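To assess whether ligand presence alters the predicted conformation, the chain was also submitted together with calcium ion. Input:
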Amino acid sequence: MKYIDSQDTLYELESYNLIEPSTVTVKAEKTADLNGDGVVNILDLVILSNAFGKDSPDLNADGVVNILDLVVISNAFD
Ligand SMILES: [Ca+2]
Ligand SMILES: [Ca+2]
């Protein structure tokens, strides 16, 4: 189960205990963190730049990696 809010933060339900609902844990991470190191910075920008014209990582889901996805990362800079 995944949910992405307007701040491009991905919330992923990792586990859910039906007996004890209070044990629900939610992991939040920036979808713009392309290399998964926990921060959005120049390294993620480089990864995106190298993928220009391809179909992934397509952050704004318009089908292609372009300047708009670069803007998404810029806005998510830590
Ligand atoms: Ca990163
Ligand atoms: Ca795009």
